[in-house]
Amino acid sequence: MDCVHLTPQTPLGENTLGLLLLYVYGFRASAEQRASLAGRTGQGTCYRLYTENAYENEMLQSTVPEIQRTNLEYVILFLKCLAIQNVLDFEFMDPPSQDNIVNSMYQLWVLGALNNAGDLTELGRKMVEFPLDPHLAKLLLMGEQFKCLNEVLTIVSMLSVPSVFFRPKDREEESDAAREMFVVPESDHLTLLNVYEQ
């Protein structure tokens, strides 16, 4: 059975700064590889749970390299730490879009990891030491500065795992009521902290 769905992180358009988790069809090359496994050791049949039209018109031929479909902030921070001055001219094996690089550099500047000249700041040097999204790395550093490191560690940990809230189809109301017991209206982050502390 080949349902061939996956959920890669996909950069938003050039004028936006976030990421979108997009539910998309997989890739034709992967589908062909899975089909060949059906008859590898004996007679077999591959049943695909999508239409021929979806295969022909909605599936890409092969996988888009991860660097071309994900956030580049940590990659750029790491390159800057390696003294790569001009990341726009860096020779990536699979070059990401210039817009994605520029947007990521802008976000690093907003976080204070890069200065106005695009050079790594002292804060940026500290942030790259954490194997985390730069936003979370800065959150940890600020937690130490503002004497709330334990709470911030908990929040970052909760953000680094799949959601603790589960909402089964046939029990939506019950699930929503259970979640309401933990909600802190001012902040999703404080809600996660509240869940952990309960």
From TrEMBL:
Q: Does the keyword Disulfide bond apply?
A: no
- Gene3D superfamilies found in the cross-reference section: 1.20.120.1080, P-loop containing nucleotide triphosphate hydrolases (3.40.50.300)
- One of the GO BP terms on file: mRNA splicing, via spliceosome
The catalysed reaction is: ATP + H2O = ADP + phosphate + H(+)
Instruction: Return the SUPFAM superfamilies for the record.
Output: P-loop containing nucleoside triphosphate hydrolases
Enzyme Commission code: 3.6.4.13
The alphabetized UniProt keywords are:
ATP-binding, Helicase, Hydrolase, Nucleotide-binding, Nucleus
Q: Name one GO cellular component term.
A: nucleus
Asked if the keyword Hydrolase belongs to this entry, the reply reads: yes
Q: Which Pfam families would you find in this protein's record? A: HA2_C, WHD_HA2
Subcellular locations according to the entry: Nucleus
Main EC class the enzyme belongs to = hydrolase
Q: The organism sits in which domain of life?
A: Eukaryota
User: What InterPro entries does this protein's entry cite?
Assistant: HA2_WH, Helicase-assoc_dom, P-loop_NTPase
- Protein name (database record): RNA helicase
Biological source species: Capsicum baccatum
